[in-house]
């Protein structure tokens, strides 16, 4: 499986961000990617109220992503905001292309001075999707701090787990991001593909969750296959998802 990591920096304009998704996905397809993974909040940066841009999961923004995936023959995983009851929205990871799925973020970022639950409703279930015989688990940002979610996805068969993020900057936050992503790969003995937004400024300076960069791919053993810097970048990595099975036989942590 060839995976493209689209470490972009989204704006507050969903139309402009959709054009960026089209450009990056096209380049990913030209590079031979089977799957291109975009960050959380690709539809619209957290610098704008999510309720102002949220659409149904079958609305025009998601529909355009589906059309793009079909046109290019690549599966796209992209962060967006979908409508929810009671005035809040869902923080959604949409998958379109060879398979169709949506995951609404379960663990909301009510921490370190932020209260995501004021405007985001929590999702109700964990989600995996089958991509050409590979089970791919879906997670969003703050979920990476909860090992049980990754272990549950892996116990259900996930060989690859995606983390779409717009990680809040601040002191030691980059180190926390890279450490947590690596730990979750080892907890779950799965490949972890963790794609963050590119940094908008100093990653060590506290601010809204707009990204610190450092998107990563980690093997089930914890070996880092790829780590980006802080700037916008499209990168590719080839992984063999079946390698997760060999690691799990040698290191049966999921049966413990």
Protein described:
This is Carbon-nitrogen hydrolase family protein. It comes from Tessaracoccus defluvii. InterPro entries: C-N_Hydrolase, C-N_Hydrolase_sf, UPF0012_CS. Belongs to the carbon-nitrogen hydrolase superfamily. NIT1/NIT2 family. GO terms for molecular function: hydrolase activity. The protein is 25% helix and 27% strand. The protein starts with a strand and ends in a 6-residue tail after the last helix. The chain is globular. By secondary structure, the protein is of the alpha/beta class. Strands 1, 2, 3, 4, 5, 6 and 13 form a seven-stranded mixed β-sheet that branches. The protein has a single domain (2-251), classed as Carbon-nitrogen hydrolase (Nitrilase/N-carbamoyl-D-aminoacid amidohydrolase), CATH 3.60.110.
Distinctive features:
hydrolase activity; C-N_Hydrolase; Carbon-nitrogen hydrolase family protein; UPF0012_CS; Nitrilase/N-carbamoyl-D-aminoacid amidohydrolase; six-stranded mixed beta sheet
């Amino acid at each position: 499986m060839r995976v493209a990591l689209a470490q972009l920096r989204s704006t507050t304009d969903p139309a402009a961000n959709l054009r960026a998704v089209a450009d990056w996905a096209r380049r990913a397809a030209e590079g031979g990617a089977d799957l291109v993974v975009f960050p959380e909040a690709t539809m619209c940066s957290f610098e704008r109220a999510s309720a102002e841009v949220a659409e149904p999961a079958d609305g025009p923004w998601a529909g355009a992503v589906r059309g793009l995936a079909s046109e290019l023959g690549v599966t796209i995983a992209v962060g967006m905001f979908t409508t929810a009851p009671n005035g809040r929205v869902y923080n959604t990871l949409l998958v379109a292309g060879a398979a169709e799925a949506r995951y609404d973020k379960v663990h909301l970022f009510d921490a370190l001075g932020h209260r995501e639950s004021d405007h985001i409703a929590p999702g109700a279930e964990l989600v995996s999707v089958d991509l050409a015989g590979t089970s791919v688990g879906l997670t969003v940002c703050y979920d990476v701090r909860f090992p049980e979610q990754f272990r549950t996805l892996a116990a259900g068969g996930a060989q690859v787990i995606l983390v779409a993020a717009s990680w809040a900057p601040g002191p030691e936050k980059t180190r926390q991001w890279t450490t947590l992503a690596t730990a979750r790969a080892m907890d779950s003995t799965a490949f972890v593909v963790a794609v963050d937004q590119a940094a908008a400024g100093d990653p060590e300076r506290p601010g809204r969750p707009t990204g610190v960069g450092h998107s990563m791919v980690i093997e089930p053993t914890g070996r880092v296959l790829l780590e980006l810097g802080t700037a916008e970048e499209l990168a590719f990595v080839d992984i063999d998802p079946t390698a997760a099975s060999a690691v799990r036989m040698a290191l049966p942590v999921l049966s413990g």
